[in-house]
Amino acid sequence: MSTNLKEFRIQLESELKKCSNVFIIGHNQPDFDSIGSAIGLYTLASHFGKKAYIIVNDEELSIESGVKRVIDANKDSFRFINNETAKSLIDKKSILITTDVNKHNRISVDELLDEFKSVIIIDHHGEGAETIETDKKFIDQSISSASEIVTRILCAYKVKYGANVANSLLAGINLDTKRFKDNTTSKTHDVAEKLIDKGASTDYVNNLFLEEFETFCRISNLIINGTIIKKYSESLSPVQVSFTLNRNNPKEIYQTEDYAKAADRMMKFNGVDASFALGYVNEDTVHISARGSRKVNVGKIMEEMHGGGNWQSAGGRVKSDDISKIEEMLMDKITIGLSDEEPIIEHPKVIKVKQIRRGKKS
Ligand SMILES: [Mn+2]
Predict the structure, then answer these.
(1) The domain that contains 154 carries what CATH number?
(2) pTM for the predicted model, two decimal places
(3) Both 290 and 255 in a single domain?
(4) pLDDT per residue over 121-152, tens digit each?
């Protein structure tokens, strides 16, 4: 494994030169970072004269609207394919690059891994038991995003690219730095400047982050009709935890993003010390998005639910077709996360999400 980007870059270059073609994949339900960095890597592969493909195997409807716009803006110049097409195109010298992801259970091509001559990981998330085994990887949790890593590589090779690629990469960095509020270093700003030089528009990128009115309504309805707040201690300042799920129609399937947004939104209310949003992502998998505060360590609670994360942000998935039971289990475990101690605020981007069984994304 390479910890030095220059060393890794040389390794990557030699793999790109040796291979027949390059398949690039981000995590399931791609976000701006995984799609932006994938577009950047495609550009790098083309720079080395190699045919590339970006694998997105998610149902079109399950892809977040902003991400969909990035794909649409690039689909005439980049090959986006699904697993099935990928299967038919892989040959003996094909390689796979996973970007913004390093775990088996978060990529759609897991069962195809053996068919690639080599698998290369580029990521900024921590490793775990599910991490794909390969000696060709660059994982650095101190770098803001996979898009930042890829932009640095593109800069090192002086690769030429246009505004669409630059916008896609900038959107990735924007997402994972919460628009340059978190996780940035001088290098992050440096690469952002370079992307702007290449034609990226901050207006265009900011616009991608605007919420669709439809999404706003869907999440508002979920919160208004499905939220209960429970008190967890009887001290002078009681700990209050909110639980959101669609109580009228518990079987309704939402996007993972929606649960995250609902949990985020509940934290904006006075007196809410932690929030959980639960719901199905498919007929027998319940997703939980959790947000915590100084008083409640949601990472600890979610670990008990076979998920993971840190103090302020956590999540996980449980195979079950009985969401009420999952909510009850969760409610019983809240006390585990209550604390009088001051939290050690962890790096907010490191969100470990473990699944009980193989499924889709966090
Ligand atoms: Mn990322």
Answers:
(1) 3.90.1640.10
(2) 0.72
(3) yes
(4) 999 998 988 999 999 999 999 999 999 999 99
